[in-house]
Amino acid sequence: xxxxxxxxxxxxxxxxxxxxxxxxxxxxxxxxxxxxxxxxxxxxxxxxxxxxxxxxxxxxxxxxxxxxxxxxxxxxxxxxxxxxxxxxxxxxxxxxxxxxxxxxxxxxxxxxxxxxxxxxxxxxxxxxxxxxxxxxxxxxxxxxxxxxxxxxxxxxxxxxxxxxxxxxxxxxxxxxxxxxxxxxxxxxxxxxxxxxxxxxxxxxxxxxxxxxxxxxxxxxxxxxxxxxxxxxxxxxxxxxxxxxxxxxxxxxxxxxxxxxxxxxxxxxxxxxxxxxxxxxxxxxxxxxxxxxxxxxxxxxxxxxxxxxxxxxxxxxxxxxxxxxxxxx
Length: 328
Ligand code: F6P
Hints:
The protein is an alpha/beta fold. The protein has helices spanning about 20-35, 45-50, 85-95, 105-120, 145-165, 180-190, 205-215, 235-245, 265-285, 305-310, 315-325, and strands at about 5-10, 35-40, 55, 100-105, 125-130, 170-175, 195, 220-225, 250-255, 290-295, 300-305. The radius of gyration is 22 Å and the shape is elongated. 6-O-phosphono-beta-D-fructofuranose (F6P) binds near residues 174 and 176.
């Protein structure tokens, strides 16, 4: 019989995402449910190295399910990229009598966890928390649904002024090197064109499509551009290029930026975070490690962390087809 696990450490790392607090709440309350202590680790791996810990209980997570961001803060840690830094982190865990780690974050977070587990044989379980939705092994990452709704709301507002002035708007959205936010929010907001890294159709096609929109009587248009788009032009250069080639358009640019990372999490993200948080603790208590919890076809599933970070995320071809037809 292995040593009874008594204390689980919990951290958030990488870009924050709405719903991370709901996941923190679920982990803490599930630990309480199973009579296991939960130690909150501030500022991700950097706080782990520094031993920036706080013992948490069911009351520590009151009134946070509806709050964006993460009460445990997040930070990038160059020190954790070094073996010496990871050694310090291991010593902090031993000093804090912490037996396992739950990591809420994206692929960078999980990569650190895999290396740490290999070097110190320390149990780690991942919960996918990023607005990018670019993690394999789950249909949705925590924060993605909220970010989609934030982007759709922002584009709806932009559309008001675009149509008032008969303007063409280029709206840049986050997603790092994935086009999930751009494609889904673009369809949801009725964008005329959506540029994503997974499908670079070239600038000529963009010009053709905008000419067609004009011919079909559209007086204003929205082009959603994923920040990782591969046209070779940034969103400002794209606007200049189009107005240089299509003088009939007056273009403006709106970069949504970090507002996509904030806001009160949607119900979907709160429920997802709660389900994943419970499962993560139960995996640890079952003696499991190097797994990520996820949701596929509404079932809570597990995926090896190595696969979660290495798999290729594929864009939904059917949705691409819908977006083409909708821009008629
Ligand atoms: O990974 C989440 C994300 O918001 C990406 O969409 C974006 O490219 C990146 O983080 C921005 O990172 P930072 O907050 O460090 O500027």
